[in-house]
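Incident review: delayed structure delivery

Summary: a single-chain prediction request sat in the queue longer than the usual turnaround. Root cause was a stuck worker, restarted by the on-call engineer. No data loss occurred. The affected request and its eventual output are reproduced below so the record is complete for anyone auditing the incident later.

Affected input:
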Amino acid sequence: MLIYAVDLGTTNLKVVLYDEELHRLATAAAPVDYDRDGVRVEFDPRRILSAVLDLIGRCASEIDTSGQDAVIALTGQAESLVLTDGRGDAVRAGMSWLDDRATIEAAELEQHFGGDEAFAVTGEPAASATWPAAKLRWLLAHEPESLRRTSSVSMIKDDLVRRLVGTPIGEVTTRGFTYLWDVRAGRYWSDMVEHCGISPDMLPEVVPAGTDVGRVSDEVAGLLPPAAGYRVNIGALDHFCAMAGTGSYVEGAVSESAGTVLSVSALQRDWRFDPARRVSFHRGLSDGDTVLFNASDTGGIALEWFRTQGLGGMPYADLEAALADRVLADPPLFLPYLSGVSPPDFLPRAKGAFVDLDLSHDRVDLAYAVEEGIAHLVRRNVEYLDPAAREVVSTGGGAASAYLTQLKSDVCGVEVIVPDELEATCRGAAALALRAAGRIDSLDDVAALNAPRSTRYRPRAGGLDRAARYDRFARALHRLYGE
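Output delivered after worker restart:
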């Protein structure tokens, strides 16, 4: 069996071809084409299918695929919205999760339903213009004709399933990112759905993560490379697939995605809802599992911001060398809240800030403060998600920095593991397809299949007083921006 793992990323679309032992056979990628104008960020859903088929073809060109069964396993972003009419044609351009037009509508949703009630139902501690619910409210106010013509309301992966098999289908790990789903009850939130100007029958059926949803349509099959047949596995959210792909879908491990957006996830099988614990919660990859999830918009981009604006574009290798040579005495602190509100504190007035600067400090000290500030933000989220965490498994661009990764281990006081796996998300989607096909019994078996090597960073003794600096960071945050 061949598995084409499709990652519907925000920046790039990617397809990785695997065999049953999760050996990577081929990889192909292409950028996502957006139409941008200020806060408006839109895309053509038809081009998503065309691009995916092209990438599958490019992967297949590297081996002989004829006569083999093939599965297309899906993962990627969640929230981007697609509206289609009764014929399956797009009513309007798709609205990316990056589209920020619905900020007023997001605030209105939280006010109308109450933030605490909405959190208890949707699993989201705060409303956001990101969610499809807020975008639907914006369309209701500004493009009511678009909603009148709509028969089906989907997210980007749901719509790709429709284009592959003929019916839009959603899966449970992405539903909590709609603000339309009752996570604990496992059904759509009818009051919210009605408030957004649509009806439940316009929303897709929802199935468990990693469900085989059938054969591709004859029309699509004719556009695919030769194979004995193609089936589609609905996969799961990219962050959760990355957990499966790196072996961090286990209790006691926190998965960190160190990209532009800093996100952390943790599996908890005995989770119980606590209204005082403001953490995003979602159904996991297996029955009964809950995955806790937090994301900070500027946790990852803060370093790139300072490297560009404060260091004149200094290459990362030069920055690593400069930091490694620096003997630190009492460097300043940095609060990496450049986009404001960030979990787990959710302080509405939060901003980025350097603290405890003096004339002895130079730009390398400031660069250190930025990296340490990111590590402090990681620690806040790791301890909030799982105070008993034994390790952090880190992927994404930021994990390539040995200095920053070691700093995270020192600050968090736990081992940080960086798998040598550039395609963790796709590997996890392929693992779900293997489970659905009966090739493995559970996701615990993934570690035995061509497991990637890992680099381990352990907390170091000596040097700066980590506990005291973290306490200063927390006190500065709340002194400056607390309610």
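Verification: The first strand starts at residue 2 and ends at 8.
Action items: add queue-age alerting; document worker restart procedure.
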